[in-house]
Design brief:
The chain has 3 helices and 2 strands; from the N terminus they run ααβαβ. It is an alpha+beta fold and 79 residues long. The two termini are 31 Å apart.
């Protein structure tokens, strides 16, 4: 409601349903499609470096920021 009172606009996109995400993920796995990785940065403290790389246009592909979990236990992910 604050945005309305301040006369602000919020623009966004959901880019598909939950089922669309599952279908796309299955398609990528089935066809072994992997993204091109340009840079891998370690830790959130390196995120600013990632923005600088993008600003200069030095990347071709994804910029990954690796965040190490605090424990070595595997993390379960559910789509």
């Amino acid at each position: 409601m604050r945005e309305v009172l301040k006369n602000q606009r919020l623009i966004g996109s959901t880019m598909g349903s939950h089922q669309d995400l599952i279908d796309a993920t299955n398609f990528l796995a089935e066809h072994r499609i992997v993204p091109v990785i340009s840079h891998v940065l370690n830790g959130l403290e390196a995120a600013e470096q990632g923005f600088e790389i993008m600003k200069r246009g030095d990347q071709f592909g994804k910029i990954v920021v690796k965040i190490s979990p605090t424990s070595s236990a595997p993390v379960a992910v559910k789509l």
